[in-house]
Design brief:
InterPro entries: SKP1/BTB/POZ_sf. This is (pine wood nematode) hypothetical protein. The protein is α+β, with helices and mostly antiparallel strands and 396 residues long. The chain has 3 domains: 155 residues, Apoptosis, Tumor Necrosis Factor Receptor Associated Protein 2, Chain A (Sandwich); 117 residues, Potassium Channel Kv1.1, Chain A, CATH 3.30.710.10; 88 residues, no CATH class. The protein is elongated.
């Protein structure tokens, strides 16, 4: 399983169609105290292929109650992006409507307000941009509802509809830096690679050694800066360093990046090799590690798009690397891929009593990881599955 560094763009052939997500929110406001008003929230997830986005619907209804010194009567009904670790993608259109039913059997309709377009405005607390619904008639119905003796049986159902283009939904937010350069084919006269001609330091790997510049390593990494300063105090003049836990290809890739800020575009790396490279990065602590992390993050996202629909074992392997390296967007894409395309196979294959020892080992790794969400991937996938169940998907 390998990744071609030259192919980093969104997959081709994506149909130019719209995704239409619809969610019904049943308001649990049957026996509210008339003076308190209403304050409710509802979370759900729009999920398709390798993309998942959290959303939260809010309703705030304030009654006119001078004796309690509460604010003037008003209603806010809006939808805002949820608490995903990354900024959500913007929908092309958001519409909100509601229906009032006589009982919780949801058969006899008292009133129906069709879906209407929302407008963009700051949320009630002014923290994020949200999609607000016109609420004039809705406020009248809520006031009538709270003043009725039958309010214990009435049910309000708010319907929220979000439309996206498939391409923008799957692309997600662009978070990657483009400061890396391609390594030239001929480096013989390139000053950035002068250290290869007259190296004064060697890194010993499991399958060979890598030449480097001692000054370059001192300037480019926190690890070697601290090491060389300590050796200077102890009057030790070393010419090599032991990195036998890593392979030569991995260390060479990192050293070339540290010295020249370039990456070989025609190099093919397996997912395991990307994971090993990030382990070296965490050990040596490069001064410029963010660009390399972004590049490898995007590299694995491209690989996930290639295998997401067909190979659950590859998706899980990428998920483990994403958790180890804390690649936030990649983790969400892996979760979405499992939920949307492989959930049953995932739950059947990866469990504590799986017949294959490799699957039991993977289950243990998934269960032990709790970075970023304070939940294991197993718990987060189940949670995402339940939130996605609240939403129906159609193609327009």
């Amino acid at each position: 399983m390998a990744v071609q560094l030259t192919d980093l763009e969104t997959g081709q052939g994506e149909e130019n169609r719209n995704l239409l997500f619809t969610c019904n929110w049943i308001l649990a406001i049957g026996e509210r105290d008339e003076g308190r008003g209403i304050s409710e929230s509802f979370g759900f997830t729009t999920c398709y292929k390798t993309a998942a986005y959290d959303w939260i619907g809010h309703i705030y209804f304030r009654r006119r109650a001078p004796r309690f010194n509460l604010p003037m009567e008003g209603l806010d009904l809006y939808l805002e992006p949820g608490r995903m670790p990354l900024a959500s993608t913007k929908p092309a259109k958001v519409r909100i409507g509601y229906t009032v039913y006589m009982t919780d059997e949801f058969r006899e309709v008292l009133h129906h307000e069709p879906l209407t377009d929302t407008y963009v405005a700051p949320s009630v607390f002014g923290l994020v941009e949200c999609y607000k619904a016109p609420t004039g008639r809705f406020k009248e119905k809520l006031a009538e509802f709270l003043g009725s003796r039958l309010r214990g049986t009435w049910r309000f159902v708010v319907t929220m509809e979000l439309a996206f283009s498939t391409k923008s939904f799957l692309s997600g937010p662009e978070i990657f830096s483009n400061n890396l350069h391609a390594q030239p084919d001929d480096i013989s006269n390139d000053f950035r690679f002068a250290f290869k001609k007259n190296p004064d330091f060697h890194l010993i790997c499991s399958d060979g050694q890598v030449t480097a510049s001692k000054l370059g390593l001192f300037l480019a990494t926190e690890y070697f800066r601290e090491l060389f300063l300590l050796q200077m105090e102890l009057k030790i003049n070393s010419t090599d360093h032991d990195l036998r836990q890593f392979r030569r290809l991995t260390v060479t890739t990192l050293v070339d990046y540290l010295m020249s800020n370039t990456i070989k575009e025609n190099m093919v790396m397996a997912v395991e090799e990307v994971s090993e490279l990030m382990q070296v990065v965490e050990l040596l602590k490069p001064v410029r590690k963010d660009e390399l992390r972004y590049y490898m993050h995007k590299l694995l996202i491209n690989r996930l798009k290639q295998v997401a629909e067909t190979r659950i074992e590859d998706v899980v392997k990428i998920l483990l690397v994403a958790n180890r390296c804390n690649f936030a967007q990649l983790k969400i894409m892996c979760y979405a891929s499992v939920v949307n395309m492989h959930y049953e196979a995932f739950k059947t294959r990866y469990r504590i009593d799986a017949p294959e020892p490799e699957d039991r080992e993977v289950f243990g790794q998934l269960q032990a990881t709790r970075a970023f969400t304070f939940q294991s991937p197993l718990e987060f996938i189940d949670k995402l599955r339940l939130k996605a169940y609240k939403v129906s998907l159609a193609f327009a």
